[in-house]
Amino acid sequence: PVQAGIVGLPNVGKSTLFNAITKAGAEAANYPFCTIEPNVGVVEVPDPRLDKLTEMVKPNRVVPAVVRFVDIAGLVRGASKGEGLGNKFLSHIREVDAVIHVVRCFEDPDVTHVDGKVSPMRDIDTIELELILSDMEAVERRMDRVQKMLKSGDKKAQQELAVLQRLCAAFEDEKPARSIDWTPEEAEIVRNQFLLTSKPVLYVANVSEEDLGKADNALVQEVRARADREGAGVVVICAKIEAEIAELTDPEERTVFLQDLGLEESGLDRLIRETYTLLGLITYFTAGVQEVRAWTITRGTKAPQAAGVIHTDFERGFIRAEVTAYDDLVTCGSQTAAREKGVQRLEGKEYVMKDGDVVHFRFNV
Ligand code: GDP
User: Residue 241: which domain range?
Assistant: First the structure.
């Protein structure tokens, strides 16, 4: 499943948010494919379409898509130089698809700030600098190797070196790898460096209870402006309230609680949705009587590769996909009706999957 790593300076509200995630989280037993460690929370992706399909098909089992959140606490100033357990935490970031950067946008005299004053801009700079320094070290090490390859006449090495040099220059300006525009070819080289600062970022602006549901406060506005410049996302939440919402197991109670706050959905649900958007992810469904299930793919994925998410055999032996758009299926009322009305399509290897496709794959074993 998709993995998102939660980072941020101490005392910004990471643990509070992470606790809300684990409380709201899915039963570990339902997700044998997700190893659960103490710093990992697995949450189901809320999707009303899945509920509707369940109602329609009445399957034995329903499996929503999930996002795995990893709490990467302990990232402090000096982490790249091995302060605290710095390097260990940095290596956790390498494994995630997206970075969720929690920044403090609430004033509270009872909660001290590690740098004395609440300033999300400086907080972002502090964390980003550690990531940049770590990347810089990795790139410099790689440059040494590539220079040796160059001497032995490796053509590819020349191209890689040029990319590494541009990365280095950006890092010296304290700019992350994601701030550079690459050609597809260069982007491939960058991907292979597994850099921390090339991961997509979503800022979580943690505001006070009073500020929730109101117009952005000045600190949130700063975060938004920065995110816009960087192509990053922003989700405004109040971690404390999220912790309270997560305590409410009764859906009705939860709805009333949210309504009282003037909210349509929890911050956590928004966070999950924004993570999907940030990563360019879409969902397709399989809907059999045994199981109705949501699957996560990247926008632009073709049918065989989408099948491969279920099982590699499905991709290898792919013949065709029987596809019905979710809306068409709902209009028809059943898969049989969809077939009779001719809205179920047979698609081949080149078919690009769409969000909400309800699919049955045909394959050779
Ligand atoms: P971490 O060090 O980033 O994990 O931060 P914590 O989650 O432990 O939070 C640090 C302190 O800030 C705790 O005392 C929290 O109760 C408090 N805190 C976290 N989120 C909020 C919030 O939204 N509003 C207020 N007022 N306090 C918060």
Answer: 2-46+63-117+200-278
Which CATH number covers residue 345? 3.10.20.30
In this prediction, residues 124-153 reach a mean pLDDT of 91
Q: Is the CB of 200 under 6 A from ligand 1?
A: no
Compute, in angstroms, the gap from residue 12 CA to the centroid of ligand 1.
6
Task: Say how many residues make up the chain.
Answer: 365
Same domain membership, residue 108 and residue 29: yes
Strand partners, 6: 71, 100
ipTM above 0.90, yes or no: yes
Final residue of a domain: which of 245, 278, 311?
A: 278
Return the beta strands (E) in the chain as ranges. Answer: 2-7, 40-44, 61-63, 66-71, 98-104, 201-206, 233-237, 281-287, 291-298, 318-325, 345-347, 357-363
Shortest-distance atom of ligand 1 to CA 241: 23
CA distance 24 to 21: 5
Same structural domain, 328 and 347? yes
pLDDT in the model for residue 264: 86
Mean pLDDT of 49-59: 95
pLDDT band at 323 (very low <50, low <70, confident <90, very high): very high
Query: What are 275's strand-pairing partners?
Result: none
Does ligand 1 lie within 6 Å of residue 238's CB atom?
yes
**146 and 79 housed in the same domain:** no
Q: Which whole number is the average pLDDT over 162-171?
A: 96
Distance in angstroms (rounded) separating the CA atoms of residues 141 and 135? 10
72 lines ligand 1 (CB under 6 A): no
Q: Is 19 in the pocket of ligand 1 (CB under 6 A)?
A: no
Mutate to test the pocket of ligand 1, among 6, 14, 16 (most ligand atoms within 8 A of CB): 16
Q: Is the distance from the beta carbon of residue 111 to the nearest atom of ligand 1 less than 6 Å? A: yes
Residue 320 resides in a domain: yes
Total structural domains in the chain?
3
Separation in Å, CA 166 to CA 133, 179, 190: 15, 11, 11
